[in-house]
Structures are given as structure tokens and as C-alpha cells.
Amino acid sequence: MSSFWEATKTRLQRAEELVGLEPEMVELLSKPMRVLEFQIPLRMDNGKVQIFTAYRVCHNDALGPTKDGTRITPDLTLDEVKALALIMTIKHAVVDIPAGGGKGGIAADAMKLSERELERLCRAYIRRLSPKGAWVDIPGADIGTSYKTQAWMLDEYEQIMGFHSPAAINDKPAIVGGSLGGEEATGRGLFYIALAVSKSKALIPQSCRVVIQGFGTVGSNVAKLLSNEGFKIIAVGDIRGAISDSSGLDIPALVNQVEQTGSIIDSPGARAISNQELLETDCEILIPAAVENVINEENASRVKAEIIIEGANGPLTPSADKLLSDKGITIIPDIVANSGGIIVCQFERTQGLYDMYWDIDTIHERLKTRILKAYKETVNTASEMGISLREAAWVNALRKVGQAIRMRGWV
Ligand code: NAD
Known about the structure:
Strand 4 (70-73), helix 3 and strand 5 (100-107) form a beta-alpha-beta unit. Helix 1 crosses helix 14 (389-407) and helix 3 (78-94) packs across helix 14 (389-407). The protein has helices spanning 3-19, 23-29, 78-94, 115-129, 147-161, 185-200, 217-228, 251-261, 275-279, 318-326, 334-337, 340-354, 360-385, 389-407, and strands at residues 34-43, 49-60, 66-68, 70-73, 100-107, 137-139, 209-213, 232-238, 241-244, 271-273, 285-288, 307-309, 330-332. The protein is α/β, with parallel strands linked by helices. A seven-stranded mixed β-sheet has the order 10-9-8-7-11-12-13, sandwiched between helices. Strands 1, 2, 3, 4, 5 and 6 form a six-stranded mixed β-sheet that branches. Residues 186, 213-219, 237-239, 275, 289-291, 311-313, 338, 341 line the site of nicotinamide-adenine-dinucleotide.
């Protein structure tokens, strides 16, 4: 058993107890609804055949068709995909997306494949998966997949079906039926949350010091938006190191630097610090937007932020989460804070079904409304029940999933 799958189920069980779900419902949600595991024999560029194991897990579709990413990583396991699919059921429900949780992937090292091998693998995945379309299960992107792989997958699906169906595959480029605003969506969602939480604590942007770990798609976008709004970004980090400047970093210059050099390190005028120092920097808002478990039992007691907004998935270990919550630090959980990406994915599917495409202002406005509603519902449930924001988000999600299951007469 993988610990990630077990840890995810433990979180589910805690929320089920808080909600008081029926035993049959608990049993139903503890396992995925459908699991598909299959082999893909792939002719490599050197003429030899290599066999890849692939998965698609649909956790629960009471709220609507299952939806979400396709992960291509060398060590991918079925338990990992099961955990991710369960989390997607919860994430969709938290932000009122009428969709269930799905996740898939291929155990392969995308970095070791040539571009043509990767294309053949993605097309073979779709042929063997035989997705049933926008009203059943919609594969999107995740680690190891991108706009490019999703365009290949869409093309393969449409070639098989013999008609266009842009809503059948998510995270594709706008030119083949994707949505505007997808790449920025998670960073923008974090930005709206940061504005709301700082306002609730009467913090004004100009005196609000922000630290961000990770300067990729999520970290750089939230940094740009916060800096435009007047927030002082005093430290950022990436996999190669971190930098700080107590008077505020020049974010547009850093974005340019990363485009040129691939990293934030060696930025003129900034002080080099370690990633540990970064996380322990005195600040009002800390946004871990890199990888999981970076705040743990080793360093949690030294974290000085007043507010933590989880950009990455699972940046706090459960023990760090407890320690920091007990200290009174406000933690906005990943399933609310980083949901901007899945919200715009749902917009992508809706636009594809209508064959009508929205302008960027409409996307931003609808994203803002949706994520702030989820944030407010989470805050309200936490205060009504005297529980953490993370528990409150799970409780709200389970209430919605549970209600849909009951209305359908499944239990
Ligand atoms: P990315 O690959 O674009 O950027 C990752 C950044 O983190 C890079 O700056 C990298 O250098 C840095 N990094 C990697 N390992 C690190 C380490 N050990 N220590 C410090 N920095 C490290 O990835 P992304 O799309 O920005 O995603 C970041 C996180 O947000 C991930 O946890 C991802 O699962 C989560 N997330 C992303 C999205 C999305 O829309 N991209 C949506 C929801 C959640």
C-alpha cells in the first residue's frame, strides 16, 4: 500500500466522521468506482518495442463526469493514481464544479523519450483507453504532459470518432478549442485568495511582505499579480536556490531573467539565501508553490509567516499542519487555494460543448467569483464547526458529494 493513498484515505475518514456519513457511503467512497490498468507496447525510434503500464481511475461520478489530469512519470503506481482521483472528487466538489474525480497516467520517463516517441505514446494511450467523451470522463494534463501532448490526444480521439469534439480532452491549446487563461489560472486563483485573506486581516498590500517558493507556472504568475497590486515580494526560491531583498524584489525583471537563464539565482542586487531560510523568512504571507512536504516536523516551528497559502499540492506534512494551526497561523489549504487551474479546466469543457469561446476578462471574472465563493464557504464552515480550514473544505465537499449520491438513490 502506498502511504499517499493511505494518507488520503485517512483524511477522507476524518472528514466522513465530521460529516457523519452513512457506513455504505463511507464504503463507496473508500474505493474508486472504476479502475483501468493496461499495457502499451510502443515501437521506439531504435526499432525495439518497449512496454509501458498505463492507468485511468474514475473515483466517483455522482456530481458529474469524471475529469482531470494524465501524469507521465517513471515511478507512477496505481495507488498514486487512486489517491489523486479521490482528491479530484473532493477538489471539484469544493469549488462547485459538476464533475467527479478522475486521474490517469503512464509509468514512463517523458524526458527520456524523443518527441516522436512521446507523441506515439500519447496517441496509443488514447486508442487503448478509448475515452467515451465529454459526458463520461475527460483526461487533462498533469506532470509530464502539456498543451502539446493534450493536442495530440485530442487529435487522436477526434480521428477515431470521425468528428470534432473539443470538450473531450482538457488542457489543450486555444487554437484547437482550448480556453484562454489556462496557464495563469492557478496563480491567478492564489492571487484572489491572497487579496481576500489579507483584506480579512486588515493588511494593506504595501505593508504585506510575501515569500514564494517555486517560480514556475504557479509561483511566477502569483508573484507577477501580487507585485502589480503593490504587495512586497521579499523572497523567492526555485530548485537551484533562493534570493531575498527586504525592500522588495523586482518581479518583472526576475521573470525576464528566468526566461533567459532558467533560474532566479544570481539576480543582481538580491541576497542569496537557502531554500530553508526562504521558508523561515519573517513575512505576512508564505506561498509554497513548488513541491510537497517542504514544511515538515524539521522546520515548522521556525516558520514565521502569519498566513500560508498552499500553491503546491501537499506542501505541509500533517504534523507541520497541526503544529502551525495550533500556533494560530492561517493556512489556506491546497484544495481551495490552488483550484484556479481546475476551475478554468471546467470553463474549457463548457466552452468546448457550446463551441463559443469567452474573452479573457470573462474568464478572470468567473474564476474570481467561483474561487472566492469556495473560500468563503470554507471559512464559514470552519468557524461554525470549530475546525481547521482544511477540514472544513473536505467537509463541504463531502456534504455535496454525499447529497448527490443520496439523490441518485445509490445508498
Ligand atoms: P513548474 O514545474 O512550472 O515549477 C515548479 C517550480 O518549483 C520551479 O521554479 C522549480 O525550480 C521549483 N522547485 C522544484 N523542486 C523544488 C524544490 N525541491 N525546492 C524548491 N523549489 C523547487 O510547476 P508548477 O506548475 O508551477 O507547479 C508547482 C506546484 O503547484 C506543484 O506542486 C503542482 O502540483 C502544483 N499545482 C500546479 C497547478 C498548475 O496549474 N500548474 C495546479 C494545481 C497545483
